[in-house]
Write a structure and sequence with these properties.
- The structure is a single chain.
- It is built from five helices and no strands.
- By secondary structure, the protein is mainly alpha-helical.
- The chain starts with 9 loop residues before the first helix and ends with a helix.
Amino acid sequence: MVINDRNRISAIEALRGIAVITVVLYHYSWFVHPLESTFLRRGYIGVDIFFIISGFLACHNTARYDSSSSNSIKYITNRLIRICPAYIIVTLLYVGTNYTLNSSSTGAWALTKSLLFLPQLSDGGPSYGSPVVDVGWTLNYEFFFT
């Protein structure tokens, strides 16, 4: 495992690239008829790779700290600061655009649960009820297991 001057682990960067490509190809295969029965439909494995990377990095980045509540709060706060602003902006833009273009509104409870990374509990796995922005289900898992 090579760690360069920017404190990045080369193998993790390579795995991220593989995961991105597999997820993109998986979604692409849904729109191209001849691809629907190919190996591309296994691209969801890229999401599993992202979860593994996330777990590894959480352990790697916190290994030098003791397990005090202050360090836990600092870790969670830093993750929220890094992830929430973009997620909130995208979610609110989606809700506003959906209302403007389709005259359909998102319920206040569904929006609140989405912004708090809580599953909607209307579907089975893996999302257990997608948030307002469907792909946010992965963040629900991230925050649940962090």
